[in-house]
């Protein structure tokens, strides 16, 4: 029997696959998205709008996930204008 088949049939590979499956099923992706957005927004606001690169990261992240909201596009425009980039 080839080595790669023995590797697949190895019990530890199945255990790792089971752990990965359990973690993938247990993640609440909408909540994780909201919490990531709050974290990025907190970094931007705590810097009193001075760290514009963090603002760009936040607004870009939110714009990619919610392109229908114009406020994120406006936030990106604001940050880029303050940095002096087109």
Observed structural traits:
5 helices; 86 residues; single chain; mainly alpha
Structure description:
This protein is mostly helical and 86 residues long. It has one domain. It is built from five helices and no strands. The chain has helices at residues 3-9, 11-26, 29-46, 52-65, 70-83. The chain starts with a helix and ends with a helix. The mean pLDDT is 80.
N to C succession of SSEs: HHHHH
Distance between the termini: 61 Å
Structural class of the helices, strands and pairings?
Answer: mainly alpha
Q: How many domains in all? A: 1
Mass-distribution shape: elongated
Helix content: over 70%
Structural Rg? 21 Å
By DSSP, the count of extended strands is: 0
Strand content: under 5%
Main sheet specs: none
Q: Are there runs of 5+ residues with pLDDT below 50, and where?
A: none
Mean pLDDT across all amino acids: 80
Oligomer: single chain
Count, helices: 5
Care to give the gist of this entry?
With 86 residues, the chain is mainly alpha-helical. It is built from five helices and no strands. It has one domain (3-83).
Topology, please?
Layout: H1 3-9, H2 11-26, H3 29-46, H4 52-65, H5 70-83
């Amino acid at each position: 029997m080839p080595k790669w088949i023995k590797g697949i049939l190895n019990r530890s590979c199945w255990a790792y696959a089971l752990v990965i499956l359990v973690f993938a099923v247990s993640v609440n992706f909408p909540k994780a998205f909201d919490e990531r957005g709050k974290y990025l927004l907190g970094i931007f606001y705590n810097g009193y709008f001075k760290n514009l690169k963090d603002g760009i990261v936040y607004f870009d992240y939110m714009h990619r996930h919610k392109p229908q909201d114009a406020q994120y596009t406006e936030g990106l425009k604001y940050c880029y204008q303050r940095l002096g980039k087109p």
